[in-house]
Automatic annotation (TrEMBL), chains A, B:
Keywords: Calcium, FAD, Flavoprotein, Membrane, NAD, Oxidoreductase, Transit peptide, Transmembrane, Transmembrane helix
InterPro entries per the UniProt record, alphabetical: EF-hand-dom_pair, EF_Hand_1_Ca_BS, EF_hand_dom, FAD/NAD-bd_sf, FAD/NAD-binding_dom, NDH-2, NDH2-like_C
Protein name: EF-hand domain-containing protein
Organism, as annotated: Marasmius oreades
PROSITE patterns: EF_HAND_1 (PS00018), EF_HAND_2 (PS50222)
Family matches, as Pfam families: EF-hand_7, NDH2_C, Pyr_redox_2
Family: Belongs to the NADH dehydrogenase family.
Record bears the keyword Metal-binding: no
Amino acid sequence: MIGATVRSGLRPSQRIFQRPLIQPQISRIRLYSTDQPPHAKVRRSIFHRSLTVAKYTGYAGLSAIFGLFVLGAGILAHDAFTYNDRHVERVPINPLALHPERGGPKNLPVVKVQVDDEDDEEMKRLAEKPRLVIIGGGWGAMGVLQTLYPGHYHVTVVSAETFTTFTPLLPSAAVGTVQVRSLIEPLRKIVARLRGHFVAGKAVDISMADRLLEVEIVNTRGVKERVYVPYDKLVIAVGSTSSTHGVPGLEHCFQLKTIADAQQIRRRIMDNFELASLPTTCAEERERLLSFVVCGGGPTGVETAAEIYDFCQEDIMNYFPKACRADVSIHVIQSREHILNTYSEAISKYAEAKFERDGVHLITNARVSAVTPNHVIYTVRKEDGTIEQHSIPTNFTLWSTGIAMNPFAKRLTDLLPNQVHRKAIEVDAHLRVKGAPLGDIYAIGDCATIETAIVPHFMELVDEADKDKNGKIDFTEWEVMVEGIKKKIPMASNHISKVRELFELYDTDADNSLSLNELVRLLEDLGNKITALPATAQVASQQGKYIGRNLNKLSRQQAGLEARGLSDVQEHKATDSAPFIYHHLGMLAYIGNAAVFDIGDFAFTGGLAAMYAWRSIYWNEQVSARTRALLMIDWIIRGVWGRDLSRL
Amino acid sequence: MIGATVRSGLRPSQRIFQRPLIQPQISRIRLYSTDQPPHAKVRRSIFHRSLTVAKYTGYAGLSAIFGLFVLGAGILAHDAFTYNDRHVERVPINPLALHPERGGPKNLPVVKVQVDDEDDEEMKRLAEKPRLVIIGGGWGAMGVLQTLYPGHYHVTVVSAETFTTFTPLLPSAAVGTVQVRSLIEPLRKIVARLRGHFVAGKAVDISMADRLLEVEIVNTRGVKERVYVPYDKLVIAVGSTSSTHGVPGLEHCFQLKTIADAQQIRRRIMDNFELASLPTTCAEERERLLSFVVCGGGPTGVETAAEIYDFCQEDIMNYFPKACRADVSIHVIQSREHILNTYSEAISKYAEAKFERDGVHLITNARVSAVTPNHVIYTVRKEDGTIEQHSIPTNFTLWSTGIAMNPFAKRLTDLLPNQVHRKAIEVDAHLRVKGAPLGDIYAIGDCATIETAIVPHFMELVDEADKDKNGKIDFTEWEVMVEGIKKKIPMASNHISKVRELFELYDTDADNSLSLNELVRLLEDLGNKITALPATAQVASQQGKYIGRNLNKLSRQQAGLEARGLSDVQEHKATDSAPFIYHHLGMLAYIGNAAVFDIGDFAFTGGLAAMYAWRSIYWNEQVSARTRALLMIDWIIRGVWGRDLSRL
C-alpha cells in the first residue's frame, strides 16, 4: 500500500490521512484470530478506546464543519455589505496643496498643506495641530503610531516602503514557510487610526533651524524631486543598513532586511534548484549551485540557515531529483567562537549541536575576506595563531553581520558637531537627538544609540551635587550625584547600585571625599562599563511606545498651558522626569524544527513544542488581526501541503 | 457613535460588527415605551426571533470555535510529522545524464537520460517507456497530465515557468482580490503523480525526422544554452501571445496573460495611487495617473476594468485622500458595437448597463491607433461614416485584444509546407499536427486550431462514397459521404444534420445526384459555415483531457500488440475511431460585484448571488486542494479586511 502511494506521487506527509481507512480493519483481523496472545485484551481495550476517540473526533469534525459552514455563511453575508456604491463628489483642495510655496535654504516646495487636509471636518481640525513627522515605517515608527491618541497631532509618516514589515519572520518568508504578504501591513491603514498622512518618499536632508525635513520623491517620470515637509516634532526611525566590515564583493551578497530581500532570496533559492536539475548542469556546478553560505552567526543568519535546511528536508526532497537533495550543503561563517553569541551559552551549544546533527557546516572563528560571484573566501585563525585561507564555491551568499548607519542618519550626525558615534545617532536618556534643538527631534530604534558616557555631564553633575562648593564630593554629596547620574544615564543604574563601595574604591587618598580627578576616573570607568542597547525590534518598539506616551503627555500639558495662557518654553522640563528604560523581555530564535529562548535568567531550548511557543510569541506581536490570521493560515498551509516550489 | 468610529479611522465595513452591541438596547427602549404603536407586537416578535437567531448563531459560533480548536490541534499534530530527519545518500547518476552525447542536425547535447532516471526502481522502469514530452504548463498541459495513468510513459514537461496558472482569475490577482500564489501550482508537484520530469526551459526548434525537440535553457551564468530533448510523442501546448494589430507603442501597454503580468499591473496601480497622493503632483498629472485604459472589451478586459473599479470603491476610498478617489476614471475601448460580444446579447446589455451605472467609460466602435507613454490615441467611426480621433491621458494601458502565434508555433508551421493558418497550428480532428509524422505530434489549446475546410478531403471522400464509380453521388452515396465528413471534420456535424435538404439544395439540375461540381460547391459552403473553436481555457482543457485519454488507450493497445508480437505501425488507425468533440459548458465573466453566465441557450446575469456562483464555478476548476483552500481564504480575507494596499 505504501509502495503504491509513493508510486502515485503523493507526498509522504499526505499518507497520514489515508491510514485510518485501512488500519482498524487490519487490527480487527489480528484481534479476533483464534490464537489470541496473552496481551490481546489490553490491545482490545486500546482498540476500543481508539474507537471512542475516533467517535469524538468525528463529533468534533462534524461540529467543526457545521461551525465553519455557519461562519462561512456569516462571512459571506458580511462580504455582501463590503461592496458599495458610494460616490465621491469633487472635494475641495486647498490651492496651497496643489501649488505649494517655495522656501527653506534650498528654495524647494514646502508642503504646508496636504492634499487631504480638507477632506472633512476632522481633517480640517487636525491641520491646526502640531505637526508630528515620523521617518520610517519599522518597529520604532509602529511603536509611536500605535501609542499615540488620535486627535492631538497632525501626523505624517515619510517612508519609501508603503508598508511595515514584521522583520523577525523574514527568514521564514525567504523560503516560503510564510508568504511575504502575511508579514506586511500597509502604513496607510495604520496611520488611518490617527487620520494621519503618508508620503512615499525618502528623507535625505534636514534644516533644523527652519524645522524642515527634505524628502526625496520619485515622480511619475522616474525623476527624483525634493520637497520640504515642515515639522514641529520629528521622530527619526530610519533603521540601519548592513555593515560591510570593508569586505570586497558584497554586491554579490544578499541581505535580509526587507521584504524585497526576502523575495530575491526566495527566487535565487528556487533558481538554484531549477538550474541544478537541468540536464546541462555538470556535477561540479550542481554542487556550487546547491551550496548556501550564510555570513554571520546571529539570529538572522542562524534562522535563515535553519529555514533553508527545513525547506530541503521537507519540500525539495519530495519533488526534485534526489541528486539535488544529496548535493545540498549549508555553511554558516561566524567570526566569534560560537553562533548566537549574544544568547546564553546553553542556547549556543544547543543550536550548534542541532546544526551538527543536521549536517549544517559551522565555521567559527572565521572572517570572510572576500566574496566573488562564485565563491566566498574566508580565513580561519587556528589555535596556534596561524591563519588559513579557505574558499567555498557558492551561488548564494547571505550577508548578515552587524549594522551600519543609514545615509539620513549619517547626514544628521554630520550636521551636529557633538555627534561622534560611528554607527548611530546619539540620543539622551529621553531619546532626544543630542545637539538638536531640545524637544524637536527624537531618534529611536537601530538608527539611535543612547549615550553611555557620563564624563560629558561632569560639570553639571558637580554643580548640582557639590552643595558646599568646596570642589570635593563627600559621601552625602556623592549620594545626590548618584541620583543625578541615574536620571541622566539610566543605563548606569545597575553599575552604581553599590554606592558606598564605589565611593571607597575611588577615594584613593582615603580622605572620605572624592577629588575632581578621582571623580573623573570613576565616571569614565562607569561609562565604559555600560553596554549600548542591542539593535533589536524589541528595543525599537519600546522606544517608539515611550515616545508615543511622551507625545500624548505633552499634548495634554500643552492644552493645560494654553488654557492658562502660557507658552511651551518649559516643555522639555515637563518630560524630564521619566527617562527611557529598557525592559528586556528575552530573545528567541528558530533553529530548524526547534527553537531557543533566552528570557532573563531563564534559557529554554527544545523541539517542536518550543517551535510552537516561538510561533505563538511572534503571533502575538503582530500589528494587525489580518496579518495574524494570514500567518496562522500560512503555517497550516505549510503543514498540510508543504511550501510552494514555484519560481516567482 | 458612527461619527466616532469614522473618526477613529475604522473602515466602514468593520462597523457592522459593532452594531449588534448597541442596537438591541435601542429597540428595547422603543418597544416598551408607554405609547406602543399598533405594530409593536410584530416588532417584538421580530426582536425575539432575532434573539433566537442570535442564540443559535452563538451555539454555531461556539461549536465553530470548538471544532476549529480540534481541527487546529489535529493540524498541528499532523504538522509535527511533516518535519523529518530523512537523509539522502549519494544517488547513482547515469554518466550519460552528466555528460550527454551530442547529436541531431545541430550537434547539440541530447538528453537521453535525465538526472533522476535512476532515483529508484520505479523511475528506472519508467525510463524504458515511450517518451512523452509536453511543451507548456497551461490548461492544455494540465488536461493531459491529469488524465494520464501513471506508469505508461516517461513524461517530461518543458516550460519556462515552473508553475501552472489559473488564468481566469488573473484580473482578480491584478488588484489583489486574490493573491498570485493562490493561482499557481508548481508543475513539479503535478508531474510527481506520474513520476515525470520537469525541464525549466523554452522550446525553440524541432527536428521531426530525428524526433528531437530543441530546448533553450538559461544556464547559471545567464547564458542561453540549447539541448535536444528526444520524444516519441510530443504534445504542443505553448499557448499564444497577444495580437498587436500593427498598433505602434504597444511596449507601453500591459498584458494580462501571466502571473508576472498580474504582479506588474498591481505594482503599477499602487504606484499610480501613491504618486497621485504625493504633495508634488499637480491636478492634471493626478488625473492622468488615475486614468485606467483597457483596450479590448472581451472577458479579460471587462473583468480587469471591473476589478479596478471595485478596488477603488472598496479600498482606495477608505485609505487614500478623497481627491484620489474623485479623480479615478476607467475607460474600456472596444472595436465592436458591444462589449462581451461573444456572449449573448442580454449579457452584453447587462454588462454595459452596469458599467454605465458605475461611471466606467465605455468607448465602442473604436480602434486604438497608437499608444504613447502618456496617452492612448483612438479613432471612433461615427454613424455618418466620419472618423474622429481622440486621446486619453493615462499611465496605465492594458492590451487584451485577440491572440497571435507564439514563436515556437510559428517555427513549427514554417517547417511544415501545408500549414497555412496565420494564427495557430492547424491540426486534424484528432488534434494531430497536419503534415507532421502521423501520431507523433499533437497541438492543443490556444496554439492550435482544428481544420474546418472540407475541400482538401474532397478526393478521399468521393473515393470512399462513390461506390459505383460513376463520378456522381446519388443520395445513398451522399449518406455514406455525410458519415465520412462527420468523422473527418466533426465540427461540421451540426451543419449537415439535414441530409436530405442539403442534397436537394445543391442538386441544382435536379437529376437526383450531385455532380462533382455541385459537390465542391456544397463542401466549400459547408466549410465556410464552421467557426473555429474559441481560444479559451475550456477548449484547451478538454483537448488536453482528450489527448490524455487517447495516450492511455494507445499504451494499452501497444501492450496488447506487443503481447501478440506486432509493431505499432497501425496506431493511427486504432485511434481513428473517435475524433475530438468540444462540449461547450458556457461562459462566465465577473463585472464588478456582479457576474454574467452564458450557459448554452441559457443566459444568466445578476448581482452578488451570481458573483458567488461565479466564484464557486472557478473554485471547482482548481487543479489542487491547496489552491482551492488558498482562494477561499483570499476571498474571506478580502471580505473581512479588504485588499492589501502595499506597493510590493
